[in-house]
Structures are given as structure tokens and as C-alpha cells.
Design goal:
- Helix content is 43%, strand content 13%.
- The chain is globular.
- It has 2 domains: 131 residues, Aspartate Aminotransferase, domain 1 (Alpha-Beta Complex), CATH 3.90.1150; 244 residues, 3-Layer(aba) Sandwich (Aspartate Aminotransferase, domain 2), CATH 3.40.640.
- The longest helix has 22 residues.
- The protein has 15 helices and 12 strands.
- The structure holds pyridoxal-5'-phosphate (PLP).
- The site of pyridoxal-5'-phosphate (PLP) has 13 residues, from helix 4.
Length: 390
Amino acid sequence: MARIYLDHAATTPPDPRVLEAMWPFYTTFWGNPSSIYLEGQEARRALDAARKLVADLLGATPKEVTFTSGGTEADNAAIRGAALAQRALGRGQHIITTRVEHHAVLHTVEQLEREGFSATYLSVDADGVVDLDDLEAAVTPETTVVSIMAANNEVGTIQPVAEAARIVKARNPRAVVHTDAVQAAGALDITPSLLGVELLSLAAHKFYGPKGIGVLYIKNRTPWQPMFLGGSQEKERRAGTENVAGIVGLATAMKLAWDERDARSAHVAALRDRLLFELPERIPDTVITGPIDPARRLPNNFSCCFRNVEGESVLLALDMADVAASSGSACTTGALEPSHVLTAMGIDSDLAHASLRLTLGASNTTADIDRVLDVLPEIVARLRSLAGPA
Ligand SMILES: Cc1ncc(COP(=O)(O)O)c(C=O)c1O
């Protein structure tokens, strides 16, 4: 039986059109874009064209686009770069973020705390939405960086980033706002000027591009300093020979994702809604995590917890049934910490251990969902009977 891949939030299969666009940059135009001879200049042209395309898709200028090694680097560089630059300008050292961010953000802020910054971690409601009153109360004249993700990777909750940015600016116009749009890209309109953010992170492998390549958007005149030092690549914002094939792949994947956004979203949302509404009917004691309102979560995200089962056992059983799924948390080892996202949403630790995330993609079909709706109730029932009475 063919495998069913339902973990598109972890990564997506590269689109063949993307691979085709990348291949010449490994085989023919492999020169270093910093070289002045023909081979270098061919690579430079491709790099410039890719940057222009990415900038156009973001409603930005090419100078505002810096290529990174992915979402993690973009998040680290955004927050660290702005926090250190703002501190050097004597503007303060208070950072605000939320309790449900990806660890690429949380661990960066925690590291900055060890370096003398102070931080506020905003709470979220039961759906995982940040409280804007709390945000307003948290912004002080000392606040320099605010980082709020566009959409959550575990439960798909969409955050009110534009409203949050307005609130921050009203309280402190010099504070810089960052959004981690790694999961939202390709699903939502993440145009930085519409969101009102100065910094925004993307990763190509979440929208059918290659792994190991991302974008950090930095609005002109934003106080920011680079993390990587060395050559003068990326206008001295990110030293190191550019990953030309990856950058071409990212730009190609981004153009396709932006052009096909509505069709792709409608396709996955229809499949996702079946899971959202049919799975709880078939499996008793299923708790949907994240907003039940489909419009308030990413169109491809379904997530839930099952009472009285171990989440990892469900994943292993699904894998045996040829379904690739995830618990939604980054933990993969035996002694699991419950997900910080679910805990922040008020879900108790036992229930949080039994989480399942199914994230859909372009190649999924109605038949895939039929199969999940068929096998999952059996799996959960079997595991519950093995565990004995609750
Ligand atoms: C919301 C979010 N931010 C950041 C990252 C990190 O991106 P990358 O794997 O490209 O480093 C991820 C990856 O899953 C993510 O979901």
C-alpha cells in the first residue's frame, strides 16, 4: 500500500519544478557569484533575479531580502540582530515574545536573557491566541524587540500580528516587530508592510522548496546587526558564499506558492475539515487542539489529543499502517517533556502527551483521509484496551 505523508508542517517534498530550476546551478552555472569572470557573473545574475523575485512577492525591495540557511537562522538573526543593535543605540534591552513560539525564537530570547536582556513571555488563551491586552501592558519605553509568530507550527493557530504590531507601535514607535512566518508562508498573506513588521522569517522547505535555505526580511533603516562575519556577501548582512541553487529553488518555490496559494489552501482545507469534524465522531474522548473554527487555523493543520493513550504509540502504529504523522512537538526521545505550546494553552500534561498533528499537502487525496479515518479509530481503541481502564 502506498505511504500517506501527513507531516507537511515538518517539511514538504520538493516540487519537481523547483528541482528543475535548481539543477543548472549545480551542473552548469556553479560559479561563485562573487567572482568577476563569466562563471561568477552567471551565478550573480541568477542570484540577483531570485532576490528581486522574492522581494516582489514580499512587496519589498531587493535590499530588504537576506538569504539565510533556513527558518532557525532567520529567527536567531532577526531577534539577536535587532536586540543587540537597539541596545548599542541605548534604546533599552527588553524583549517580548509569546509562550508558544518555535524554539528557534524561544531559545534565542532565553540566551539574550543570559546576556543581560529582560524578557516577557506572553500567555495565550485555550486556542493558543496571544492576549493583546497583555501585550499592550507589557510594552514599555525599554522594549526594543517584539517577536510574535504568524501561525503556530503545532496547532496551526493564526496570531493577530497586524493588530499586535499596531499596539506595539502606539506604545513605543521605536520597538521593532518580528514575525516568524515559517508556517504561514504559502497559506496566509504575509506581506510585511500589511503586517506592519520590520523583520520576518521564512524557510523554503515548508512550501515545496529545498531544505537549508530561508529568508530574513529586514525593513530598510531597521536597527539590526549581522550574526555572521566574514565576506561582504548579502550586503554584509550574512557573510558566506551564497547557496545559489538553494536560493533559486527558494524563489521558484515561493513564486509557485504565492501564485497557487488559494487553490492549494482550498484543497488542504477541505481535507482538513473532514478530520476536524469526523475524527472526534469516530474516536471518543478526542480533544481538538487549536481553534475549532477552521478560519482561525492554518488550512492544512489538524491537531488533537486522545485521552488515555500515549501519543508516541499512536505515531508508531500509524507508521506501521503507512501513515507518516507527528505528535506536533519537537521531542522525539523516550522521556518526553509535554509540548510547551499545549501546556501554554492550559492542556494538562497527561493529555499533552497524547497529541497528534496531521498536516496536509498538495498530494493528499480524499482517499488518504478515508484511510486515516479508517485506521486511526482502530489504533486508538487497541492502545486504550492495552493500557487498561483509565
Ligand atoms: C514556526 C517555525 N519556525 C522556525 C522553524 C525552523 O525552520 P528550519 O527548520 O528551516 O530551521 C520551524 C520549523 O519547523 C517552524 O515551524
